[in-house]
Amino acid sequence: MSIPTVEIAGVPDPLPVAVLDVREADEWAAGHIEGATHIPLQELPARLGELPEGQTLVVCKVGGRSAQAVNYLAQQGYEVVNLAGGMLDWAAAGRPMVSETGAEAYVL
């Protein structure tokens, strides 16, 4: 099964889709896409009811965990797409991020 993927350049601003961040809590706190839903990859099966409605962009640090999440969620019938390059490429492209700490957002 191929993983539906989009490059940073193909993601419009503002985002027309919901965002699911599957990184760990410390990564999320350091910096994430504003408005994203945070569910760590290992918790995803137990928290499916918290997923946003409609098409969802799934992100992690570099794209590996989010690809796993996209594969799993697509098998469950969700409309999902993986962000190629993850949050590292997002930050490198100068796309906006927020942190939970009040400090400047960064990718951990």
TrEMBL record:
One of its GO terms (molecular function) is transferase activity. InterPro entries: GlpE_sulfurtransferase (IPR050229), Rhodanese-like_dom (IPR001763), Rhodanese-like_dom_sf (IPR036873). Residues 17-99 form the Rhodanese domain. This is Sulfurtransferase. It comes from Nocardioides luteus.
